[in-house]
Amino acid sequence: MRYLKLLGIFYKYSLVSELEYRAKFLANVFMSVFWLGWAIVSVAVFFLHTDKIGDWTWPEVLMVVALFTFFSGVMEALLRPNVGAVLDQIRDGTFDFVLTKPVNVQFIASLRNIVVWRLSDVVIGLGLIVYAMSQMHVVPTLGQVVLFVWMLLAATAIVYALWLMMVSLAFWFVRLDNFTELFYGFYQAGRYPVTIYNGVVRVILTFVVPIAFVTTFPASALLGRIDQTTTIIGFALAIGLFIVSNRFWTFAIKHYSSASS
Amino acid sequence: MIRKYLALLRRSLAAMFEYRASMLIWMLINVMPLVMLAVWFSMSEGGPIAGYTQSDFVSYYLLLALVQQMTSVWVIYELDYEIRHGDLSIKLLHPLNPLHDYLSSNLADKVLKPVVLIPLALGAWLIFPTMHYEWTPIRVLVLVAAMIAAWFIRFMAQYIFGLLAFWISDSMTLNDIWFALAEMLGGMIAPLDLFPPPVTAVAHWLPFRFMLSFPVEIVSGRLTATDLAVGVATMLFWVGLIFVIYRWVWRRGIRQFSAFGA
Amino acid sequence: MIISIQHLCKYYQVHQKEAGLIGSLKSFVRRKYTDVKAVDDVSFQIDAGEIIGFLGPNGAGKTTTLKVLSGLLYPTRGSVRVLSFTPSERRNAFLRQITLVMGQKQQLNWDLPAMESFLVNAAIYEIPEKQYKQTLGELTELLELAPLLKKQVRKLSLGERMKCELAAALLHLPQVLFLDEPTIGLDVTMQTKIRQFIAEYNERYKATVILTSHYMADVTALCRRVIVIDHGKLLYDGDLRALAEKIAPHKLIRVEFSRALNGERLEDYGEVVKTRGQRADLLIPRDAAPGVAARMLAELPIADVTIEEPAIEDVITRVFEQAARARAERGESDEDEDEDE
Predict the structure, then answer these.
(1) Distance, CA of A38 to CA of C77 (rounded, Å)
(2) What is the predicted ipTM?
(3) Which of A61, A79, A83, B101 is paired with B56 by a 20 to 30 Å CA distance?
């Protein structure tokens, strides 16, 4: 309860400081639309030469692009300004202020800030999902929607866990100022359905850096083309990664408090 | 001038060596060519697409990755930081145009990168022995020149966008748009031949082609001697134009800077 | 004459820049300006070898003036000559003979030992090999740099870093030094060392120095002449001691009594600034001070008496207070001041 209240205060603070820049909001909506257009064109190129990629039709691939945009927004609005900023805080010494606050460290480090205007990507991503569905003239069943939300939650947990682990690792390598950027390299692969990749690449994207569960599988869920095994694996993976990343974070904090001067 | 460059290069190399791990990570992040290769590779499994076979795609994208690495540029971040923190003032007090300082720090990266890239290239060649290029002495020579030109256009374009910070606060956003266009029309998403013909025709004349795809095209075996000559001429045009634009923006920028103190 | 400024004005046209891409595009095409007078009709001349203390509160226009003198900013009006160059042309021949040290800005690369940055400067300033070695030797000795040169700059203390900054800024043996708060944030010992170094450099190379500092000790130790500006206007230019006489035409008499006073009125002797227990401080007009002191000795139970100049900090504070009062009388507000960073 106390934490919910804190969250309210945090976000009100973020919102107020963001509202100072109304013009910035417009510029960012513009950039969101621009990037979305860019992503769509980058998929459209393939459909000049084929009508299916990795067994996905044009509107189906749009769903994946939509989820890619959606999670870009989630990362930019919530993960980069919080977990991503921990690295900078360690480097300039302000992380000590976080550690001395009488609040759970992971809570503050994960949810303190929100860059509201970056949520434009989230909204636009959702919009594109609706558009793609209408293009296919499909209305998803209630079961598919539930499964979709389910997979979306799992995807959120996975993305969060991956970020948390990267940052925890960075406690040992403070000099690596671009550590969190590493994730983006892999994330780029998530703009296409994972079935398009062959062999090793697909295995890596499914199990090692499970981007497939972030963009492809939630889309499959809504399209009703996901099998039960994938759902279960996704859910197990989300819980597993979440637990492991939390443990690792706690361990890293302990290491930090004992090693820093 | 050579002495100055050697000293700057030495300093930049030493600094870069301090950040060698970061440098490796930056290299790893640029996986876009590999992602695109993976996609086109699996798409062309059933047969060539518009004349591109699987091994054509491999040849195209692996060389593209190399060109991308050897032409990478980040000067806008340095410039933006130094303009905002006033560090540029200190550089302006030196009897040397700050451009050389930034150029040399980028060159240091290009001197170090082959250490990693050459083994990678050899490895790639072992994995994909079907990679094929048109290695004639002249083409290789033009390839090297085109890579230098690509680097120069990239660098100067970003530098110019960075200098716009003297006037506007969103120079970074403009640079992002430029970068996105370069990815699309520079042959990253697809070889330019795979776009609809009108788009391809326009893209051939735009600067983006000469920032990435042109060096690869030179040895791809798809350019006739005439295409090559026209391409080189267009490339030189853009190199010249961007330099002229730089001179113009720099002069006005310095006037702006010393009038307002930025 | 090394430096000559005639009627220098530097007005900033502060434009109201709107945030965001659209606002920026708008202000790129058309924008509104308001004038801020950072430096307003200032003239002075400086001879070779002088050390000038350049004083004024924050936002007075000190840094702006130094930036104009070093060629970073060009003047709105007035003429500026430094070493018979016009600084804003930023000729290499000019830049090679000056240096600007800013206490809050660094030119050394933090990731490398200072030595690396020195080598770069040697190349940029085209310092001949032999001269470089000799100068480095001298600076190393003067600043006691030997143990610092091979250490990563980020691992140095603030004071050590400042010493390296100074060395980097002086390797080309500039004729004219603009030092903007060179001792800021340093502890007293280090301040003294930097001060001594500046004096020695001035002595050895006959260099001209303009120094700004918030620490009056720097100024009193180094500068015979001070230039005081406030709100962009020149308030005083001349001998430091004469400033005290002009601004504060009083001396301070400190007395200690052998017993508590009963009924004697101190106010009859002069303006009582402070009393505590059996001590009191009085301000007496400069000329009358010896006479008043003698009278007090004769008429009061005095245990001890001293006659002092008021502290220079107090004098300067008075200068600014007077200027502010004068401005207030003219009806100008304090609001138009700008930060001259």
Answers:
(1) 50
(2) 0.87
(3) A61
Six token digits for residue C233: 């206007």
Q: Which of B7, B258, B259 sits opposite C120 (nearest CB)?
A: B7
Q: What is the pLDDT of residues C212-263, one digit of tens each?
A: 988 888 888 899 999 999 889 998 899 988 887 777 778 888 888 888 877 7
Q: Degrees (nearest 5) of the Cα angle C181, C187, C188?
A: 95
Mutate to test the interface with C, among A18, A20, A22 (most CBs of C within 10 A): A22
State the Cα–Cα distance between residues C297 and A42, nearest whole angstrom.
97
Residues of A in contact with B43 (CB under 8 A): 46, 49-50, 53, 196
pLDDT grade, residue B136 (50/70/90)?
Answer: very high
What are the φ/ψ torsions at residue C4 (nearest 5 degrees)?
Answer: -140, 125
In the numeric block, which tokens belong to residue C140?
């190393």
C-beta separation of B182 from B208 below 8 A: yes
What integer pLDDT is reported at residue B262 of this predicted model? 44
Q: What is the spatial distance between Cα C87 and Cα C71, in angstroms, rounded to a whole number?
A: 4
The span from the CA of B65 to the CA of B72, in Å, is: 10
Q: Could you tell me which residues are beta bridge partners of residue B52?
A: B49
Instruction: Report the distance separating Cα A235 and Cα A230, nearest Å.
Output: 8
Instruction: Give which of B25, B68, B77 to mutate to test A binding, by max A Cβ within 10 Å.
Output: B25
- Phi then psi for A167, rounded to 5 degrees? -70, -40
State both tokens at B165: 């910070």
**Tens digit of each residue's pLDDT (9 = 90 or more) over C39-61:** 999 999 999 999 999 988 888 88
Residue of chain B with shortest Cα separation from A188: B32
| Chain C residues in contact with B92 (beta carbon < 8 A) | 71-72, 90
Provide the CA C183 distance to its chain's centre, in angstroms. Answer: 10
3-state DSSP: chain A helix, strand, coil percent, rounded to 5?
80, 0, 20
Distance CA B16, CA C111 (A): 9
Cα–Cα distance for residue pair B124/B212, rounded to 1 Å: 20
Query: How many of the other CB atoms lie within 10 Å of CB of A204?
Result: 16
Cβ-in-10-Å burial (0-12, 13-18, 19+) of A126 comes to middle
How many Cβ pairs within 8 Å bridge chains A and B? Answer: 79
Distance from C-alpha of B180 to C-alpha of B161, rounded to nearest angstrom? 14
Query: Beta strand pairing status for C233-239 and C279-285?
Result: unpaired
Q: Which long-range CB contacts under 8 A does A206-210 form with residues at least 24 apart?
A: A209/A162, A209/A183, A210/A158, A210/A237, A210/A241
Q: Reduced to 3 states, what is the DSSP secondary structure of residue C171?
A: coil
Closest CA to B9 of C149, C116, C169: C116
Q: Is the pLDDT of residue B259 over 90?
A: no
Which of B161, B168, B249 has the highest number of chain C CBs within 10 A, making it the mutation to test binding with C?
A: B168
Query: Chain B residues with CB inside 8 Å of A186's CB?
Result: 31
Residue C138 Cα, gap to closest chain B Cα (Å) = 22
